[in-house]
Amino acid sequence: MSRRRVQNETSCGGPRVNTAIITFIMDGKEVSAAEGQTILEVARENGINIPTLCHLQGLHPVGACRLCLVEIKGTPKLLPACVTKPTEGMEVTTDSERLRAYRKTVTELLFSERNHVCAVCVSNGNCELQSMAQNLGVTNITVPYFYPHLPVDATHPRFTVDHNRCILCSRCVRVCDEVEGAHTWDMSGRGTDCRVITDLHKPWGESESCTSCGKCVQVCPTGALSDKGKAVAEMTKRTQFLPYLKTMREYWL
Question: Which residue range(s) make up the domain with 111?
């Protein structure tokens, strides 16, 4: 295996630039990555599924959910694929008994930390956390439930935030900051006391920075953020706008 460089044209048809190509092993197969790519990006290019909840194309990766952890030969720790870049000759395992057990436990902890009652959720059937549990074979929760008493903020004229269903993925924070540019959302507190907040703990309806664009609602993977007036299982999300907006902004900038 060798490190080599290839020439690529810019997206606007500009001059060619040199890009380093890294070759490494993923699940027993030799794969290549462009310099700067993450393990997760390379996996998806090669049709390898690594589960994620916090990651979303078009947003800066943060490694919050820890579901995308992978094994790397010679390293005792599990590393998040969404923020780890491969090196020449690296050997990566994306699926093993250890990883499957770990991902099931992480999913169970997400369910136990808040009050995820799928039967009465607006995103029932359209929830990424619910789908994750089904794909990983989580049929019951083996850890104690916290049953926190969390508020529902319905002060916004169009949207609702239910903290009982939040998994702290920070997608709403990132899309509001990186795409809309308002930075209405942020994170407050630590551990189980962590919450997403608007304008330094103001009710959402009193926010002076919110543009009511709805991007945060669309990227939320659960029923934590939803449109008002949606009944059980009626809330669907549309995230396709993110890659388009990112591409257009990079083009014009």
Answer: 100-252
